[in-house]
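Retro notes (design track)

What went well: tokenization of the new backbones is finally stable.
What didn't: we kept losing track of which sequence belonged to which structure.
Fix going forward: every design gets posted as structure first, then sequence, in one message. First example under the new rule, 346 residues:
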């Protein structure tokens, strides 16, 4: 009889263990399923193998967002630009990811057509139409006649909604100031000089936030917003525009605003606070998908929290409406969790 009882307890133990998976930071073992998942990334060389498409798909995202430098073309020849987009379309694993989910996108300089380019690029209107063609934007869409590729979309779940606002930091961006005194490429413009978004896009963004009823508001910029000391492209080269964005967020009273960015070939979290805002402003940088700043040895960023990741990676946003929380993750090869940040938005 004792032998039978011992055997029964052994079987019961095996059942209990199988019902409660062991914790493994490299896998997605969630007791509670999240309500919505956004994956995003930037800096994708179309001629290189992308090892991450299959890893992104493992996370079952509800939306993929391109953060810019979606291809590397750097050309004013639209035939070449179209060919490079077609190479991306055929990149192994890409279509398997995006065929069944919505895709939103902005561009950065290398898919815009001019390295570090802005409003001066003479082929920007042609490049925009090629961009819209690749992303299957209807010929009758207002985006076909709009100047710039900015857009917004609301995603509604049973528990709430998320507004995604995608900015264009190329079409209207005015001149940068070269740094001739230090080893950096650029330095901040004189305060008040120049613009990242241009008047029309600024008015649009203000309206999008002021009228948002969404539980979370995600704003994507191709270039970093908070990190501004490294001397490359950043909103920090237009310090008055950074202040304007913070003020716009505060005045709008929009809920759960989170900033996303790319461009840098590194991934990091930056955070700032405002006395008039009940939650911190976080800039989640995710870059790059096929190549990174492998020789990274450090750079200043007074807003940085946690560590810089200089391995190929993509970003994940997992939304928990019950707890008003966004779980932010950087993931890489084999879906390894590289870094995580959780933020509750009261």
């Amino acid at each position: 009889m004792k032998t039978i009882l011992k055997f029964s307890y052994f079987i019961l133990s095996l059942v209990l263990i199988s019902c409660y998976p062991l914790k493994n930071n490299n896998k997605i073992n969630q007791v509670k399923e999240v309500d919505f998942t956004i994956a995003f990334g930037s800096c994708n060389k179309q001629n290189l193998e992308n090892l991450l498409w299959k890893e992104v798909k493992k996370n079952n995202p509800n939306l993929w967002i391109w953060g810019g430098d979606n291809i590397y073309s750097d050309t004013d020849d639209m035939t070449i630009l179209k060919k490079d987009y077609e190479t991306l379309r055929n990149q192994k694993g890409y279509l398997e990811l995006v065929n069944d989910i919505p895709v939103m996108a902005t561009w950065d300089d290398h898919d815009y057509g001019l390295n570090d380019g802005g409003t001066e690029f003479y082929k920007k209107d042609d490049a925009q139409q090629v961009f819209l063609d690749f992303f299957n934007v209807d010929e009758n869409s207002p985006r076909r006649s709009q100047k710039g590729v900015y857009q917004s979309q609301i995603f509604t779940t049973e528990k709430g909604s998320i507004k995604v606002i995608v900015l264009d930091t190329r079409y209207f961006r005015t001149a940068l100031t070269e740094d001739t005194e230090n080893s950096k490429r650029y330095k901040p413009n004189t305060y008040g000089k120049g613009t990242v978004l241009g008047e029309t896009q600024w008015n649009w963004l203000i309206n999008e936030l002021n009228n948002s009823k969404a539980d979370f508001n995600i704003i994507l910029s191709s270039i970093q917003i908070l990190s501004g000391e490294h001397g490359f492209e950043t909103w920090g080269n237009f310090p008055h525009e950074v202040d304007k964005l913070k003020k716009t967020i505060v005045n709008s009273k929009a809920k759960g605003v989170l900033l996303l960015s790319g461009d840098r070939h590194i991934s990091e979290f930056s955070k700032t606070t405002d006395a008039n805002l009940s939650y911190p402003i976080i800039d989640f940088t995710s870059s790059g998908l096929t190549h990174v700043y492998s020789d990274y040895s450090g750079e200043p960023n007074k807003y940085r929290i946690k560590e810089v990741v200089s391995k190929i990676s993509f970003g994940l946003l997992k939304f928990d409406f019950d707890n008003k929380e966004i779980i932010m993750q950087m993931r890489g090869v084999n879906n390894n969790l590289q870094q995580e940040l959780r933020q509750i938005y009261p």
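Added context from the reviewer: Residues 46 and 87 are 6 Å apart (CA to CA).
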